[in-house]
Fold:
Amino acid sequence: EYKYKNYSVYVNELEIPEGYSVTYIPENLSIEKPNYSAHITYSKVNNSIVYSYDVTFNFIEINKNDHQSFNEFIEKIEKAFKESIVLTKK
Structure:
């Protein structure tokens, strides 16, 4: 269940501990559909990794014909949520 015209933004910052370096940052994700969209971005700022996720739902209900496309959208986002930033000790 989703609220109509819902726009949410989540931002998290991971400070890189002293003595560690970043060896992997997941790729950014951007999905744009007429009634919904999502963006996940990672950026290295000074000694931190900033993760930003925004999602927009612009519908009251989804047509039966759009269920498969919406489910694929959700699956891509869930897969991206499982990605990890990898730190290694110097």
The mean pLDDT is 93. Residues 9 and 54 are 4 Å apart (CA to CA).
